[in-house]
Amino acid sequence: MEILRAVDLKKVYGKGENAVHALRGVNISVEQGEFVAVVGTSGSGKSTLLHMLGGLDRPTSGKVFVDGEDIFALKEEALTIFRRRKIGFVFQAYNLVPTLNVYENIVLPIELDGAKPDGKFVEQVIDTLGLQARTGAMPNELSGGQQQRVAIARALASKPAIILADEPTGNLDSKTSQDVLGLLKVTGQKFAQTIVMITHNEEAAQMTDRIVRIEDGQISGGRTGETHITDREVQA
């Protein structure tokens, strides 16, 4: 079942001669439970694409559907609520609240939404990510790898339709990166979670189910109107 679709997504910054075309008609489709890597060099448009897919920024034109909802048809307040409930984010910067312990950081988005965390599910996530002994620790007491595990747990805890990860291992050494990516893949499979990861790291991308390449704001090799890249990897 399709969980995410972008249709003819365009983003232009500036006007006239100073206009920068960050996205040039991107079409992509992701199925439920897939772990997809979007790979591109700096300036290719991959981070802009992630921001559009997550509703963090609005496109110049085009549509994004998450779990069947046309997210940019929503008004700003409704989009904020939808994003909080349906989209989990994992960034290169862990973005943990320094005054909250591990458990409090994990359930914070759920509580901000006025909901009650599913205690049993949260404990499952914590166990899977190996954080059982660290739930009372503060962020400054954790290693970088542990902090990123907390960020992944936080993204999973609200049972979102999709998780978007932006260079999630960018601040980690190679060994810790492999560990975190392995856990991201394992948790995705265990909890039937859909994950789209933006990365420039070829080794990281190879751990996913499917690789989509983006260059100069376009999906490499994608035909006009194409919405699903069916090959294991689209070559540049």
Quick overview:
This protein is of the alpha/beta class and 236 residues long. Helices cover 32% and strands 25% of the residues.
Main traits of this protein?
236 residues, alpha/beta, Rossmann fold, six-stranded mixed β-sheet, four-stranded antiparallel β-sheet, 7 helices, globular, disordered C terminus
The major pleated sheet works out as:
6 strands, mixed
Mean pLDDT: 89
CATH architecture: 3-Layer(aba) Sandwich
Strand coverage percent: 25-35%
Instruction: For the record, give the distance between the C-alpha atoms at the N and C termini, rounded to a whole number.
Output: 27 Å
Low-confidence stretches: 221-236
Radius of gyration: 18 Å
Tell me the total number of β-strands. Answer: 10
Number of domains: 1
Fill in the CATH topology: Rossmann fold
Output the CATH homologous superfamily: P-loop containing nucleotide triphosphate hydrolases
- Assign the CATH class: Alpha Beta
